[in-house]
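Hi W., the uracil complex you wanted:
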Amino acid sequence: MKTIRLDKLLARQGFGSRRDTGRLIRSGQVRVNGAVCTKVDAHIEPFADTVTVADAPVALQRDIYLMMNKRAGVVCSRKDSRYESVFDSIREEDSASFSDGALHTVGRLDADTEGLLLLTTDGALTHRLISPKNHIAKTYEITLEHAADESEQRRCAELIAAGIGIARDGPDAAYVCRPAQLAFRGGTHCTLVITEGRYHQVKRMIAACGNGVAYLKRTALGPLVLDESLAPGEYRALTEEELAQLQEL
Ligand code: URA
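Structure:
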């Protein structure tokens, strides 16, 4: 059963910062299963334990898991001088109880990238999905800037299958990518499956092939597939089945 630290749980439920909730716990006003608990790092099971603050019950909330079809023109950081944030479109009922910033994106998509973005409060799941050790597959649909004829398509697919070298970009050094799969559907449309997630990785891989990305959309993250009935910018909670698939990873 997944547990959460008492100070963190109270911070999520709106009792202030971790420092505030630490003070509250030490003051003796917090009870766990009826007994006063002054241990800030006590571990609580949200479905099994009851917590009260000054005798008032605290609603223990499960982690939340949201699938968004990110639209272009928004960023994954919380604040940006030029763009709106994906967090601006999260409805009050989904974010209100997580005032400590626990809701986060699993990895990032660029401002101009669309498609599957997972948002969750479950840090352990995020860690599993983005850890470079786990090689979780990510699928992208790409529209290229320049049409590639058949021999060019073959050349690009081979370079990428062998592990293509990408140039330095901003904070990220030059790097040889893990072997990946590029499949064409006509001269400008292709699907790329990669098992890592470096800064601007898809754009750098396509640039290393001598082309450019005109449009980029992520359609899958591990077993999770974008629900195409979500319009760009819309999101919904994961189904039980989608969540179970992710938790098996
Ligand atoms: N690779 C990119 O270049 N951009 C993204 O948004 C995601 C992967």
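The longest helix spans residues 150-162.

W.
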